[in-house]
Specification:
Layout (H helix, E strand, L loop, with lengths): L10 H22 L4 H26 L45 E8 L14 E7 L8 E6 L2 H4 L4 E6 L6 E7 L8 H4 L10 H11 L3 E4 L2 H4 L10 E6 L21 E5 L12 E6 L1 H17 L11 E7 L3 E7 L7 E7 L1
Parallel strand pairs: 1-8
Antiparallel strand pairs: 1-5, 2-3, 3-4, 4-5, 6-7, 7-9, 8-9, 10-11, 11-12
Helix pairs in contact: 1-2, 2-7, 5-7
The structure holds a DNA duplex (14 and 14 nucleotides).
Length: 346
DNA sequence: GACATTTGACCGGG
DNA sequence: CCCGGTCAAATGTC
């Protein structure tokens, strides 16, 4: 996967072009969903490649120097590398017993999570299964930092890790730093104790959960950001209104940890038995996040094309950003495999 | 017994 | 040499 090197100037326009490309590919995919699986696979690869390029553009052109936002804690953020991680296939890294510090990790995304449970000593479940492997007192921090790795590191070679540290100023907030990407087939539904209908693929199930959430992604403070629309200082605002009939555990729109730095996330505690969910979730997303999620969604979508469909409610994805452009994806309620996709350029 | 967590030691980058 | 990230043995939980 090669990053497309683009000058900082017209980066957003190019990414819009790439997004449009993705849209067209998804449209084709939509057409062929009931047809040739091979063609779907091919389209999936193309979508994946385009998405990767887009991420590469953002990384190389717009996120070479992570700026701290107002919500930023005192955590340093080294520049994102221009070499995004290869997501294709399971990278079976041998994982040498190396205690080397990972300073310039390729996929490093920081978010701030508030635990709705208040006194909980860990942020709300992010949809992945983690295993704690260490804890350290950090100089200048009031609370220790906990180190987690993916539960499926051994079995599936998943290299994803995360660090969780309670914020000094507000004990209800946690700074979560994700490293790497999940290559595992995470069984979030099963892990959350959800009953899975027989004969359905976990991947499809997970995807359908994602599709079942109503999502809205919009830019926030574009004008205040200055010249380049979604510049490095402009986060995306991500809101997910509550979907009727969905339990909080099903409500996680995306379970991937590919969240960017400088994000503020507040979400209900998904493991709480009583669904006393607030009206909506909010998180600020950078374009990198949007693309990462889109990439994940699309790949999962295509992976699931051959799977049997499950009951879903209508879902609508709206990706706002990149100046005045927007991408809308509507999941038709009667058929999960059908999507109404449209773009807008105001 | 299997798996997860705790915790001190170890390692290496800066 | 300090400090952050990881290891791995000990311990806890189911």
């Amino acid at each position: 996967m090669e990053a497309v090197h683009e000058g900082n100037g017209g980066g957003s326009g190019l990414v819009v072009t790439e997004l449009s490309h993705i849209k067209e590919l998804v449209k084709q995919l939509d057409v062929h969903l009931g047809g040739s699986p091979d063609l779907c696979k091919l389209l999936a690869q193309q979508i994946f490649a385009v998405t990767e390029r887009s991420i590469g553009m953002i990384k190389s052109g717009h996120f070479n120097g992570p700026k701290r936002s107002a919500a930023g804690a005192g955590l340093d953020s080294p520049p994102l590398s221009a070499t995004p991680s290869p997501v294709s296939g399971v990278s079976n890294t041998p994982f040498k017993p190396n205690k080397k510090r990972k300073t310039s990790e390729k996929g490093r995304h920081q978010i701030r999570v508030s635990s709705a449970a208040g006194g909980a000593d860990a942020p709300a479940d992010d949809g992945h299964s983690w295993r704690k492997y260490g804890q350290k007192d950090i100089l200048g921090a009031q609370h220790p930092r906990a180190y987690y790795r993916c539960t499926y590191q051994k079995t599936q070679g998943c290299a994803a890790t995360k660090q969780v540290q309670r914020a000094d100023e507000d004990p209800a907030l946690f700074d979560v730093i994700y490293h790497g990407e999940h290559t595992c087939v995470h069984k979030t539904a099963a892990a959350a104790g959800m009953v899975q209908p027989a004969g359905q693929n976990p991947d499809a199930q997970s995807l359908l959960q994602s599709l079942s959430s109503s999502l809205t992604v919009k830019t926030e403070g574009l004008t205040a950001a200055g010249t380049q629309g979604w510049s490095t200082t402009t986060p995306f605002s991500f809101s997910s209104p509550a979907v009727s009939g969905m339990t909080p555990a099903e409500h996680h729109p995306f379970s991937t940890p590919s969240t960017p730095e400088n994000c503020f996330v507040s979400m209900p505690t998904s493991l709480e038995p009583s669904p006393a969910t607030s009206g909506s979730n909010h998180m600020c997303m950078t374009p990198f996040h949007v693309h990462s999620e889109l990439q994940t969604m699309v790949s999962a979508l295509v992976e699931a094309t051959s799977m049997p469909a499950a009951d879903t409610e209508e879902a609508a994805f709206s990706y706002w950003g990149f100046d005045d452009s927007a991408l809308h994806v509507n999941n038709l309620d009667e058929d999960v495999n059908n999507f109404d996709i449209s773009t807008f350029f105001a």
